Amino acid sequence: MDMIRIGVIGTGSISGLHLNAYRSNPQTSVYAVCDLNEERAGAAAAEYGAEKVYTDYRELLADSGVDAVSICTWNNSHAEISIAALEAGKHVLVEKPLCRTFEEALQVEQAVQKSGKILQVGFVRRYDANAQLLHTLVEKGEFGEIYYAKATTLRRLGNPGGWFADIERSGGGPLIDIGVHVIDLCWYLMGRPKPVSVSANTYRKLGNRANVEHLSFYKAADYDAALNTVEDLANALIRFENGASLMVDVSFTLHAKEDERSVRLYGEKGSFEIDPETVIVSEQSNTIVNIYPQTDHKGFDFNSAFQHEINHFASSIHTGTEPISPVQDGVAIMKILGGIYESAAKGEEVKL
Questions:
Q1: Are 86 and 111 in contact (CB under 8 A)?
Q2: What single-letter DSSP state applies at residue 295?
Q3: Dist CA 131 CA 93 (whole Å)
Q4: Listing from the earlier edge strand, what are the strands of the sheet with 91-95?
Q5: I need a labelling partner for 33 at 20 to 30 A (CA). Which of 227, 278, 286, 342 fits?
Q6: Poorest-pLDDT segment among 53-57, 82-86, 188-192, 225-229
Q7: Above pLDDT 70, what percent of the chain?
Q8: 179 touches 153 (CB < 8 A)
Q9: How far apart (Å, rounded) are the C-alpha atoms in residues 169 and 186?
Q10: pLDDT in tens, 287-339
Q11: What is the Cβ-side half-sphere exposure of residue 250, based on CA atoms within 13 angstroms?
Q12: Distance (Å, rounded) from C-alpha 352 to C-alpha 349?
């Protein structure tokens, strides 16, 4: 098979996971990197052996040596760069979220349809080995109908600041940054039912809590304690056409004694948890049993999941098959996220 020459647009922290995975994939080579910060782009190129360095993504897309791109930029540029890349004849892997709004998502979807190229949304949680194991069991009917899911990702102190806290660049706070992961994971494992309504709340009470001492947390490269225009906390109840429901809460900062992560899905014949570790709950001989699958990682492993995501992207390009996180799923998730923000702003349930 021909080597796929990759261009990585944006060389911030998340790009390292893409770059490492491309380097480990025998079907891909890092050909070009692009970043507004030329020094940072040059450093990435040197580390990963890229031939070309750009500071303007348009120049990278005009390079005939680029076959496909990873878009690892701020959320406000995802739609623009994705559309431009598709129009330039490149395959696209775009980091989550697909974009900032449902309207932008529809524009990206239209560009994918016109281009005939692959666009894979970076819903990396789908590519985790445990998620794929559970998805297979769901597909086989092991749990019966999945009718309820509950997802929690609460940080007690974890507002990254910088562009993450700037709604113009990010599109939102913890909901669109980390909540998108668990909402998509639940929706995917529930069989991607059609969402019909959302009732939600968002809160801006604590800000970035730059005053807190003795505890460290990740800060964006452009961290600015004075800038914070996103929510601290979001919660929502999402209803689906098949009668199933998903309850989610997510925070950047909260007066909680510790961080909390849990993802649980309940079916007629059994249930399972995937965060913080994978557990299957079933019945045998009229007895409830908890089953712990023997896999390489009890919970989500970032590095292996990103490797699987990149491997899948390369395989989809070579075979011309739709990825397991296609553009239409990105559109559906943006519809849900937009509905949550709309419901919170209106203070009432909204129909999707």
A1: yes
A2: -
A3: 20
A4: 52-54, 28-34, 4-9, 68-71, 91-95, 119-122
A5: 227
A6: 225-229
A7: 100
A8: yes
A9: 26
A10: 999 999 999 999 999 999 999 999 999 999 999 999 999 999 999 999 999 99
A11: 26
A12: 10
- AA identity, residue 8: V
DSSP notation for 155-216: -SB----GGGG-HHHHSSSHIIIIIHHHHHHHHHHTT-PPEEEEEEEEE-SSTT-TT--S--
Q: Work out the end-to-end distance of the chain between its first and last CA atoms, rounded to an integer number of angstroms.
A: 44
What is the reported pTM?
Answer: 0.97
Residue bearing tokens 């349930």: 349
Fill in the amino acid letter for 98.
L
Write the burial class of residue 277 (CB in 10 Å: 0-12 exposed, 13-18 middle, 19+ buried): middle
Q: Which two tokens stand for residue 160?
A: 């990254």
- pLDDT given for residue 1 in this prediction: 62
pLDDT mean over 19-25: 98
Q: In this predicted structure, what is the pLDDT of residue 126? A: 98
Helix/strand/coil (H, E, C) string of 235-258?
A: EEEEEECCCCEEEEEEECECCCCC
